[in-house]
Amino acid sequence: MKKNNIAFGWLPDDGSGGGTAHSIGDIESSMGQKTSAQGWYAQAQSGTLFDGSQFKWRKDQILSGGVFQPAVMPTGGWWGLKYEDNQQAVAICKVMKEYTDAGLEVWLRFAHEVNYYQQDGTYQGDVNDFKEGWDVVAKACRSIAPEVKMWYTPNVASLDEYDEFFPDDASTVDLIGVDWYPKQTSDFDFATGSGNMKAFHDKYTSGNGIKFAIGEIGLGQGASMSSRVAWLENIMGSNEQMPNMLAVSWFNYYKGYDFRIAACDGDSATKQYFAS
């Protein structure tokens, strides 16, 4: 599924937020097109070796096609994600290797939204813990599963905050992006608005091979389908301003309110948009 030469993917609702779980196949059926990517979440709990079980029970879906975009969240601390002890990093990369060995392209969102999740307590420590953990995971994957692309995806913030958390070794970064859920439905712009997307894109994707992609996005408040699709159009229309933008994945959940634009009432508007 593509629009304006930007690949489009989905984070299918797993039912954890009160919605009805649906599969990537449900979304593809509703849209009438194959997805370009699919994202799923898993926690790497401190003190327990990561086994990828949250991915494995839906492995058939993941293998059905498109780029696999796993978000692996280091919860409870940074055990095994240190220079002197990298066992958790090795475990994560071995799971990623299962999918690259199966022929999938894998973009790993390790510790996504770290700038937000360290504030709310989901992740522990500070920026230095993240940077060390990132470096350890990136280097483990370079050894174990070198096809894996490391994807730095902070939560929406100022450019200074994106810079603060940006990994010290830029060679460990293959992709950058931002997760953004604006709490408005008009008079905002994806590329040049308060998300600082274009500024981030321009600073880090110039001449170094790093590409820009959005790991998850939606509207940050309940909104009509027309408003959701208008935000989608705004995002997908940014390719000329951000030429190194490759892909976008939509948070297709019902979680407190309806983020969905596929496999739901009114999704004909989304289908029409992608078909045009």
Automatic annotation (TrEMBL):
The keyword Ribosomal protein does not apply. Residues 1-276 form the GH26 domain. The active site is at 113 (proton donor), 216 (nucleophile). Keywords: Glycosidase, Hydrolase. GO terms for molecular function: mannan endo-1,4-beta-mannosidase activity. InterPro entries: GH, GH26_dom, Glyco_hydro_26. One of its GO terms (biological process) is substituted mannan metabolic process. Belongs to the glycosyl hydrolase 26 family. This is Glycoside hydrolase family 26 protein. It comes from Rhodotorula graminis (strain WP1). The lineage of its organism: Eukaryota, Fungi, Dikarya, Basidiomycota, Pucciniomycotina.
